[in-house]
Amino acid sequence: MNLKAPVTLLDVAQRAGVSVATASRVLNGGDRVPRQELQERVRAAAEELGYTPNAQAQALAKSSTNVVGILVHDIEDPYFAAIANGVMRAADEKNLLVMMASTFRDADREITYLSSLRAQRARAAVMIGSRRLDEDVLARTTREVEAFLNSGAGLALVSQPGMPAHTIVPDNRAGAAQLARELVGLGQREFAILAGPDELATARDRRDGFIAGLAEAGIEPRAVLQGDFTRDGGYAAAGELVDRETGVTCVFAVNDVMAVGAMSAFRARGIDVPGELSVAGFDDIATLRDVWPALSTVRLPLEQMGRRALELAVSGESPATETFPGEVVIRASTRRL
């Protein structure tokens, strides 16, 4: 079987009658730009021969590629998927190539992926997750973030404040506090919180904000249960809540996927939502359109947050932090008492 050898930069240079260095400057970029007549000869030779520029060579010449990396904690989670979608749409408008990886909420994997993007001379990266509270993890992540930025690449983080990079921060505390106020306004008084993992700042901020909102009315939650930041975590925590027989009338889950899992658990136990038990979540993910009864929640502009993260990551500007407020949306899953 005869396989045709790939066309090399040397082949193009010989066809155009120029040095390999000149051909590289034309096709891969660089500081010294050859005169127009040479550029035309090199490009014509490349087209005739069917030459495809080497991406790694271009990166070396330009100090970066047109690649943007997206690192998400869990791409199956609609919250992260919606933000990543905003990043990808904004990148497409800027003719940037996107590489995406799911870290599965593993801090070491996240650090390794960011280091890999640095080695590949990515132009920028967007990290979408929740800030961890472990000091060792924070220190190691900060060191890699600094190394990534020192390589000349841009970086923006979503929901991970405290790093020396552009940061998009949803106002979790304020949104959860306002939700608590509006649920109290419906006459609800007996609350439980499905709080998520204590080591994730997002989960803690939403839990603490909700508790603060209840405290304004002199109310304390009857129960606070931890669980995974997932649908199954919400299902398990809701089952535990029912077994405790706490007498609550309203359950707040710190994200929508936990709330959806909780509603499934309540249905499996024969508990009517909202007739016997009201349920609310946080995020307003797109999949809620198919949930019945429609879930009360705090709406975040997820795609807009992703778009803005990409814009900041490639802006070349000094690190800035931008906060996005949430909007309480009361739907059929919570009732007035």
What tags apply to this protein structure?
single chain; 337 residues; alpha/beta; 434 Repressor (Amino-terminal Domain); Rossmann fold; 3 domains; 6-stranded parallel beta sheet; 4-stranded parallel beta sheet; 15% strand; elongated; Peripla_BP_I; transcription; DNA binding
Characterise the protein shown here.
The structure is a single chain. By secondary structure, the chain is α/β, with parallel strands linked by helices. It has 3 domains: 9-62, 434 Repressor (Amino-terminal Domain) (Orthogonal Bundle); 67-170 and 303-326, Rossmann fold; 172-298, Response regulator (Rossmann fold, 3-Layer(aba) Sandwich), CATH 3.40.50. The protein is 45% helix and 15% strand. It is built from 12 helices and 12 strands. The strands form 3 sheets. A 6-stranded parallel β-sheet has the order 2-1-3-4-5-11, with helices on both faces. A 4-stranded parallel β-sheet has the order 7-6-8-9. Strand 6, helix 9 and strand 7 form a beta-alpha-beta unit. Helix 5 crosses helix 12 and helix 6 runs parallel beside helix 7. The radius of gyration is 26 Å and the shape is elongated. The termini are far apart. Residues 59-63 have low confidence and may be disordered. Residues 7-62 form the HTH lacI-type domain. This is LacI family DNA-binding transcriptional regulator.
